[in-house]
């Protein structure tokens, strides 16, 4: 990723992060709208799940300049998703829900450049997760 794309992701993340609970609710609402079958993968408290999601996203976004440091954790997350029964095709659905959620939170600030930067970020991280899942 270019420094400009990393900056775009980090700057826009800082804009939506203060509303973390609402962002997580929007994300999961959209995810389950896009694929209702994914709801069955979540057994626990969704507010807690939302906090975990936001913490994971925060770590990923703040670590974009040193991805090599977090890749082992990202890969482990991919292996755990296999154990949770997460279908491979859901990764694209999650990406769609994430981009939609960011668009809702950023409004006009969700420019084509921002969308491209977030898409590259998601593809980079989800590819690492999927590669680890395949190897598991």
From TrEMBL:
<keyword id="KW-0349">Heme</keyword>
<dbReference type="InterPro" id="IPR009050">
    <property type="entry name" value="Globin-like_sf"/>
</dbReference>
<dbReference type="InterPro" id="IPR000971">
    <property type="entry name" value="Globin"/>
</dbReference>
<dbReference type="GO" id="GO:0020037">
    <property type="term" value="F:heme binding"/>
</dbReference>
<dbReference type="GO" id="GO:0005344">
    <property type="term" value="F:oxygen carrier activity"/>
</dbReference>
<keyword id="KW-0408">Iron</keyword>
<keyword id="KW-0813">Transport</keyword>
<dbReference type="GO" id="GO:0046210">
    <property type="term" value="P:nitric oxide catabolic process"/>
</dbReference>
<keyword id="KW-0561">Oxygen transport</keyword>
<dbReference type="InterPro" id="IPR012292">
    <property type="entry name" value="Globin/Proto"/>
</dbReference>
<keyword id="KW-0479">Metal-binding</keyword>
<dbReference type="GO" id="GO:0019825">
    <property type="term" value="F:oxygen binding"/>
</dbReference>
<dbReference type="GO" id="GO:0008941">
    <property type="term" value="F:nitric oxide dioxygenase NAD(P)H activity"/>
</dbReference>
<protein>
    <submittedName>
        <fullName>Bacterial hemoglobin</fullName>
    </submittedName>
</protein>
<dbReference type="GO" id="GO:0071949">
    <property type="term" value="F:FAD binding"/>
</dbReference>
<feature type="domain" description="Globin">
    <location>
        <begin position="1"/>
        <end position="134"/>
    </location>
</feature>
<dbReference type="GO" id="GO:0071500">
    <property type="term" value="P:cellular response to nitrosative stress"/>
</dbReference>
<dbReference type="Pfam" id="PF00042">
    <property type="entry name" value="Globin"/>
</dbReference>
<comment type="similarity">
    <text>Belongs to the globin family.</text>
</comment>
